[in-house]
Structure formats: C-alpha cells, structure tokens
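Let us work through a complete example step by step.
Step 1: write down the sequence.
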Amino acid sequence: MVSSPEALSARAVDILARLVSFDTTSRGSNLALIEWVEVYLSDLGVASRRVPNADGTKSNLMASIGPAVEGGVVLSGHTDVVPVDGQPWSSDPWTLTERDGRLYGRGTCDMKGFLALALAAAPDLVAGDLKRPVHLAFSYDEEVGCLGAPDMIDVIARDLPRPALIVVGEPTDMVAVQAHKGIASYWVTVTGREAHSSLTHLGVSANMVAVKLMSHLVELSERLERQADPASPFMPKGATLTIGQVNGGTAVNILARQCLFVFDLRTPPGLDPQAILADFFALADRLDAEVRAKAPEGGVKVEVRSLTPSFAPEPNGVAEAFARRMAGDNGPARVAPYAAEAGQFQGAGFSTVICGPGSIDQAHQPDEYVEIAQMERGAQFMRRLIDDLAIA
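Step 2: predict the structure and record it as tokens.
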C-alpha cells in the first residue's frame, strides 16, 4: 500500500533531520551525506552511481527507480549549502529544530527539504507498479556556481533512457517556476609593484588600477538598470551587476602590490553576458599592457568563476504542466531572479521546471527554515507523482 501524504511527510522530516546534520558547506566535502544516501537507497534495493569531481572530494549521486524506459521524471537538487559563519542563529544550524510550525536548520529550504521528500518517496516508488521511472539526481557545488551538475547532466543524457522532464526542487513555495536569470562571475587580480607611497614613480598601485576597473563596472551596472525592459517579469527587471568582494593592499603608505575583487553579472534570458562585458574585457587588456610597461612582473588577470546559463520559459512546457498538475498549481506564470541548475538541464535539451518546498526569502539566512505545511504540500506532490508514474 502506498503511504499517505501524512506518512510520507513525517518520513521526509525524519530524513531531513539526517541531511541537515551533515555540514555540506560548499567549501568542504559532501561525501558523508552521499554515503548516507547510498546506504539508505541500498537498503531499499536501489543501486546508485557517483559522478565525482576531479579529485574525488565531492560527488554527484544518481539513482533510478522503476523500469529502464524512456519518459521518466528526474528529481534534481543540490546537496551543498552556504556557510553559517558570523550568522546569529537561535539554534544549532546542524540540528533540525521545530518551532511554531517551522523546521529550522541550514539547508532546510535550500534545498535539503526537497531531497528529503524525494528520498521519502523512494520506498513507495520501489513498491509501486511504475510504468515509467524516477531518476534521482543530487549535485554538489551549486552554491558556488552550479559547478557539479554539468558532468551529471552529461551522464543523464548519455546513459539513461531519455527522461521526459526534469523537476529542480529549489524553494518556490511548491509552485511552478518557468524561468530564472543566468549568472556569470569573475575573479579579477591586479598585480602591481610595491613602493613607498611618496615615490609613486617607482611602483604601480594595484588598488588604483583596480578602482578604474571597478568604476567601469559601477557605470555598467547603472546603465543596465536604466536599460531594463519595463515589461520584464523579473524583479529586478533587468540584468544586475555587483562587486561582492574586494581585497587589496597591506598598509596606507605602501603602493599595493595586489588587489583581488570578484563580481557577478545576472542576466535574464536573451541577454549575452559576454557581449555585455566586452568593453570591460577590452579595458582590462588595455590596463594590463599599461601595468606591464611599468612593472613587467605585474598585470591584470580576469578569470571565469562561473558561467551558469539562464533558464527561459518553454512554450507549452511539458515539465511545467506536469509540476502544476502534481502541485495543484493553477496560478500565473512565475520567474526567479536567482540562478539555478535548471538552465543547465534546459541547455542539454530537457524540458525543465523549478518546484520545491520553502521560500527563497529564507534561503542563506540565519535561522533558515522550511514550514511543515510546505513539507506536507511536497508530500502531496510526491504522492501524486507515484500515482502518475503507475499509469501507462
């Protein structure tokens, strides 16, 4: 007998407590969580497959339940979370804590709640008479640029019977989201030559050069805001550009030898980040030549940190229609300002939707939480999915 939504939800909460207990902050490893999931699935008779990173310190995990036929559903989510450093938590972020109808802990909404629901459905999926499969696809390093998913998506495209659709379980309050912005982020390193600050002719201040580059980005950010399409469904409506980190110099009276800054550009579908940044790249090349003329050991280096594609609305999208049916969602079309792995799945040719428990408003915050009511809605989604996949 298939579990009731109430029983499935309770099972998911128990699993969520285990998943939250693993510190899978992106700077570390996710392997302890992966190993726990492997054992959980193995106990159900479900084989799983790792798709690791280059040095084996992190891994994606894939598993299939049901017949090896085309037309299945991929339930995808990331295992990594953002840091808790310096955040004023009211309870241990690595211990699931219930207060006032909310489940607190790092990753509860972003996005271990969805992983827990997918795993909670696994026993019923195994026991069910499925005509089409469910594929679990759990990734690493989404929070630092969606770095892990591409290798896993390649395996899905190459080795699995072609799935009909992908559900990416980012927090959406259990309603369907049909589009998100892309993100292009870059490290910029300026290296100059140290000298006494009174002898500027003897050195090159990396900070002074970096300020010219950052000034260009500020002007570009303001121009992008002015050029935003007023009809855009996104908020903010247009592309956004921010400088997130700056580090340079050692003392007030020393010309800075090095300055490092990091920026990100978030673009709605249809905008090319490389084209938007063309003038910036040209300025970086020009300043690189100027620095090297005075200090051959110096220069300007721009490195790609991440290039996550945007996710565009799919006319009459199979995935969105499916998610709406499973979630009981008859609301308007929705988009998200954040970047996710949905654009990567779409870029590989898969019909994709974002739908998962919790609100993005709680993600990355101290006292991050997912409402129990959201887990219950997610359990209803999974219960309907089990029934749907049993239909030929």
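Step 3: interpret the result. The domain at 182-308 is CATH 3.30.70.360 (Alpha-Beta Plaits).
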